[in-house]
Write a structure and sequence with these properties.
Layout (H helix, E strand, L loop, with lengths): L4 E6 L5 E5 L1 H12 L1 E2 L4 E2 L21 H8 L4 E5 L5 H11 L8 H8 L3 H9 L3 H7 L3 H5 L2 H15 L7 H12 L4 H22 L15 H11 L4 H4 L3 H11 L11 H25 L1
Length: 289
């Protein structure tokens, strides 16, 4: 049996989080249990060339000596020290997961920056409105797509003026800052997100964050702008102005200064332009009352 190498990251409480080797560990444990986790079927060996006589055999079919040998087989652990910063751990996750599970940035970020903030992203990803406008699939959930969108909103809302490419580094900074958030601050983040997406949905419904009527996909840059703008309003302030806001967005999407590009200059220019237009509509409606 080949050596099984596993990278782990030591946590402050002494736990060891698997960085690389989760599939290998899962396969070994599942074989010992006798059940293949994906379909809950009997887990038997197949495709063996060196020990072809074991093909078709589950753990319970092995001799007592073979079972004991498998249980006693040592794992080679590579331990990342507890004081390794999360950004360094993120880079290691990305580097050593270039094969195998091949984690994307958000999957690696969740592991490297794990904290109550990451747990909040998990909870918010179950938001009913988000699921409606995203049409999220099981693959999206596995890929952490919605969690990255939520993190992106918090990052843009709090630090848009500091944005520099690449986006991944910007989101890493946000995840790093989130580690120190208090429970009260996390609750405020939750309320901020729910208010923003609730306001957008009240205006555009299932078409929220789409560039035009022919598109059914959420546009990330439009997500940034609408979420940041409407996080500043209470729903009562927007009532009666829904059609005016829908019509204005159709117009502003054609404006020469409203470019859906992810650069620092475009972000700020687009946000400032749209903030002012929405404020004018809201104030005009308020004066009529």
């Amino acid at each position: 049996m080949r050596k099984v190498r596993v990278w782990v990251h030591e946590q402050s409480d002494g736990r060891l989080d698997i960085v690389d080797g989760k599939q290998r560990i899962t396969s070994l444990l599942s074989y010992l249990d006798g059940i293949f986790p994906r379909n809950q079927q009997r887990f038997s060996l197949e495709g063996l060339e060196t020990l072809s006589q074991l093909n078709g055999q589950a753990n319970e079919d092995l001799s007592e000596r073979e079972q004991q040998s498998l249980q006693d087989y040592p794992l080679t652990l590579r331990i990342l020290a507890q004081d390794s910063g999360p950004k360094a751990v993120f880079e290691i996750y990305k580097r050593i997961n270039s094969g195998g599970e091949n984690l994307n940035d958000q999957q690696a970020r969740k592991a490297a920056f794990w904290s109550p903030y990451m747990r909040l992203l998990n909870e918010l990803a179950d938001n009913a409105i988000l699921k409606k406008v995203r049409g999220s699939s099981e693959r999206d959930d596995e890929q952490e797509t919605d969690r990255e969108l939520i993190l992106r909103f918090f990052a843009m809302h709090g630090h848009m003026a500091d944005y520099r490419m690449p986006l991944s580094n910007f989101l890493n900074d946000e995840a790093d800052c989130g580690i120190s958030l208090t429970s009260e601050q996390l609750q405020q983040r939750q309320q901020l997100f729910e208010r923003a997406i609730g306001n957008v949905y009240a205006i555009w419904g299932d078409d929220s964050f789409q560039k035009d009527d022919s598109s059914s996909k959420l546009e990330p840059s439009l997500w940034d702008t609408l979420m940041c703008t409407f996080s500043r309003y209470e729903l009562e302030q927007l009532k009666g102005k829904e059609e005016a806001l829908r019509e204005d967005l159709r117009k502003v999407l054609k404006h020469k200064d409203f470019k859906l590009r992810l650069s620092s200059a475009n972000l700020l220019q687009r946000q400032d332009l749209y903030d002012k237009r929405v404020a004018a509509i809201v104030e005009k409606g308020a004066r009529k009352k």
